[in-house]
Design goal:
alpha/beta; about 775 residues; membrane; Beta_hexosaminidase_sua/sub; eight-stranded parallel barrel; flat; transmembrane; Jelly Rolls; TIM Barrel; transmembrane helix
Length: about 775
């Protein structure tokens, strides 16, 4: 599951290895594409097959091409259906069924036990025949997906394509996946997504040979599964007060207030299950318990805890997050799970088990009595009791549970599979205990993170998970033995939707990162990232045919600023240019073309500038980033900090606070903001000579939900010699009502000084009844300006 945003600083983002980055505005533009010969791939297949051998010639489809089901297996019709339907739609060619294999112009499909892997296949293309062999129909289906990628990308068109020769090169492919679990998780609880999008997502997953779609159907922000027995779950729990990005849990204000939400009927979900099965994809439903349950408790408040006096906690101001452990709760949940299992035939049922605060359990006399009756030692063991009791019920139905790695706390249920999301530690521990594991560590697999340093990126939960990072993932941790490693079933990319209210943004966050994960979980011999890109770029044209709103942040180019030690000039240096690519740039914000300046070394920044770099491929922009230089008297001058920023929020280096680049207005982890926990900021800058100083400003970030607070006070001090400073102004009592950057401006009234010092005292300990209460607040500081 996911860390509440309030913990993101302490836990989630600490693992992101953000490279040093201090930049100038990079408004995107175009990069010229010059692939090395070593990058070229014989076949642009994703995920890349384990063994590929090119033959001579090519097979050409025509109106007389026949297809023969040699094994007479009915499921094979489903497996070859994508080829039949797409060819008919895009080319008008109708593949007719043949009774026996002719020698020419035929596609022969058969099940054959010589293929040892259940999902493996062999695809042999010659000028006369296409032969597909697999152990099971699903292997045939994956062979068909590879065959479709050998055809022109117009095969993905929804209308008839003209002037296309429908041919595939002669080739022999032997292939099978490295992992049995290759999945995506779609959170439809935070934001309801239309049914049509779920079918589209299944289509795209099938193209990538992914086989598990995990649907997060319930959470505190919404209940999306129709229950026949408990109709208030959707009548009330599926609709919350407010707007799409409103985080309120108020379901009670109706009907006068604006309500937001929706749900899926059981009929719709059965249809979706059948559709997924036709693509050999299993849908795994998730019903949250014991926490993330405010929508359910809004509908059925009798399932909440009682306080120490026996009264219900007031709703909605103090609505609790967990179900009470009373018997009525287990009756309710087993009834719900029975309905869920009647709709979803999957082996696995996800029961979450994550992020339970257990606050009310500690106060509730019912829960405390449960601890005594079951001879438990703590509320952690009470959570384990809760999950184990649910597991026994699910096992009795012939199914198994999956839970997030918190289900390890207090003792793991006997047959549970663990999804490791808080890094890999939980997965390692579970595997060492002999449990099956699915890896979903945030730094590699959380697609609600930002995917570039571009300040124009759409809203995201936080973090930074770039495409290259996803592609680099190895699901089996080095800490496991070979035998323990066999318990790692695979990996899953998760899209939580707190900040993803639309289909368009969901696509943007999923693609192409999910494409990279598909190869990371399939290909036994992973290629270089540059080789992957050489296949991804043409693959994007297939996504275009499906009108996918994918991200074009494929590269990891940055612009670092520094002061040249010889000339004392502020310089901008482009780093991270992939092998085989060249960078072109402009400094006026215009889009560069191949006729613009080629980057050959650091660029002088002598005035306000918009340094623009970018990449183009086939005349289409395939990447963009943005930064801006705003020059003032302090920019690029010698500066020093009394205390360096926290190592996890020091990506821009110690001079990021006077490099001429303003950090994001609403994003504190963009490599421009510097962060300290429980410490003051004190920085001084040498203007080079005594100057008349009229104004000094500094920016601080405010986001209490993430434990970030405005400073308690900010002071400006000046000096002529850099040693003896005098305070000239101080400000206090900053508002913490609104999230984001706040600029603090001081009118210094023409004071003469060479050195400027800024001291910002951190807020102190976080107040009670706030996320992180009692712990030291974080202080984030950005650009100082002097004029």
């Amino acid at each position: 599951m996911k860390i509440p945003e309030s913990k993101a600083i302490m836990n989630q983002f600490i693992k992101n290895k953000i490279t040093t980055y201090v930049s100038a505005i990079v408004m995107l533009s175009m990069i010229s594409f010059f692939p090395f010969k070593g990058f070229s791939q014989s076949f642009n297949i994703i995920p890349y097959p384990n063994k590929v051998e090119r033959g001579d010639g090519e097979f050409i489809f025509s109106g007389t091409t026949k297809i023969v089901n040699k094994s007479h297996n009915k499921e094979l019709a489903t497996a070859i259906e994508p080829l039949v339907s797409k060819l008919k739609t895009a080319s008008g060619i109708v593949l007719t069924k043949g009774k026996k294999a002719n020698k020419t112009n035929v596609i022969v499909v058969e099940l054959n036990n010589s293929i040892t892997e259940a999902e493996g296949y062999q695809l042999v293309v010659s000028p006369k025949q296409i032969n597909i062999k697999a152990k099971t129909p699903i292997g045939v289906f994956y062979a068909v997906q590879s065959l479709l990628q050998l055809l022109p990308d117009d095969i993905e068109s929804s209308t008839l394509a003209n002037n296309v020769t429908w041919k595939v090169p002669a080739v022999t492919i032997e292939d099978a996946p490295s992992f049995s679990y290759r999945g995506l998780m779609m959170d439809v609880a935070r934001h309801y997504m239309p049914y049509s999008f779920l079918e589209k997502l299944i289509d795209l997953m099938a193209m990538q040979k992914m086989n598990k779609l995990h649907l997060h159907l319930t959470d505190s922000q919404g209940w999306r599964f129709e229950s026949k027995k408990y109709p208030k779950l959707t009548n009330i729990g599926a609709y919350r007060k407010g707007t799409p990005l409103n985080t309120t849990y108020d379901y009670a204000s109706r009907p006068d207030d604006s309500l937001y939400g929706g749900y899926y009927t059981q009929a719709q979900l059965r249809k979706l299950v059948a559709y997924a099965q036709s693509k050999f994809i299993t849908i795994i439903p998730e019903i949250e318990m014991p926490a993330h349950s405010k929508s359910a408790l809004a509908a059925y408040p009798e399932l909440a805890c009682l306080d120490s006096t026996g009264k219900a906690f007031p709703y909605p101001s103090q609505v609790q997050d967990e179900f009470c452990t009373k018997d009525a709760t287990f009756t309710f949940l087993t009834d719900i799970l029975t309905e869920v299992m009647n709709v979803f035939p999957s082996k696995y049922i996800h029961v979450a088990g994550d992020e339970a605060s257990k606050v009310n359990w500690r106060k509730c006399r019912i829960c405390q009595q449960r601890i005594k009756d079951e001879h438990l030692k703590s509320v952690e063991e009470l959570q384990s009791y809760f999950i184990k009791r649910i597991e026994r019920f699910v096992n009795q139905k012939g199914r198994q549970i999956i839970g997030w790695d918190e289900i390890l706390e207090g003792g793991l249920a006997p047959n549970a599979t663990v999804m490791s999301w808080r890094g890999e530690k939980g997965g390692i521990e579970a595997a060492k205990q002999g449990h099956n594991v699915i890896m979903t560590p945030g730094e590699y697999c959380y697609f609600d993170h930002f995917q570039s340093d571009d300040p124009n990126e759409p809203a995201a939960f936080g973090g930074l998970t770039k495409l290259a990072k996803v592609y680099s993932y190895q699901p089996i941790p080095k800490e496991l033995t070979a035998e323990e490693g066999k318990l790692v079933a695979g990996a899953q990319g998760n899209l939580w939707t707190e900040f993803v209210p639309s289909v368009q943004q969901a696509e943007y966050m999923f693609f192409p990162r999910s494409v990279a994960l598909s190869e990371a979980t399939w290909s036994a011999k992973k290629q270089t990232y540059e080789q992957f890109l050489s296949r991804l770029l043409p693959y994007l044209k297939r996504l275009d045919k499906h009108q996918v709103n994918y991200s074009k942040h494929l590269f990891d180019i940055k612009i670092n600023s520094f002061v040249d030690s010889v000339s004392n000039k502020l310089m901008a240096k482009v780093v991270g240019i992939p092998n085989g690519f060249q960078v072109f740039y402009t400094t006026d914000g215009s889009l560069p073309t191949k006729d613009a300046k080629a980057y050959t070394g650091p660029v002088d920044i002598t005035a306000n500038a918009k340094l623009t770099v970018g990449v183009i491929y086939n005349n289409v922009v395939v990447d963009k980033v943005q930064k801006t230089f705003t020059i003032n008297a302090a920019t690029g001058r010698a500066s020093k900090l009394k205390t360096l920023a926290n190592k996890n929020y020091n990506a821009g280096g110690e001079h990021a606070w006077n490099n001429g680049i303003f950090g994001s207005e609403n994003r504190y982890n963009d490599q421009e903001w510097l962060g300290w926990c429980g410490e003051d900021f004190e920085g001084s800058v040498d203007l080079g000579k005594k100057e008349t100083v009229n104004h000094v400003s500094i920016r601080c970030f405010n986001k209490p939900s993430s434990w970030i607070y405005m400073p308690s006070s900010v002071s400006i001090l000046v000096s002529d010699n850099g040693n003896d400073f005098r305070k000239i102004e101080e400000q206090k009592n900053f508002s913490i009502a609104n999230d984001g950057a706040q600029k603090i401006v001081f009118n210094t009234k023409g004071v003469m000084a060479r050195y400027i010092k800024v001291i910002a005292n951190y807020y102190g300990n976080i107040p009670q009844n706030n996320p992180g209460a009692g712990t030291p607040a974080w202080l984030f500081v950005d650009e100082v300006t002097v004029d």
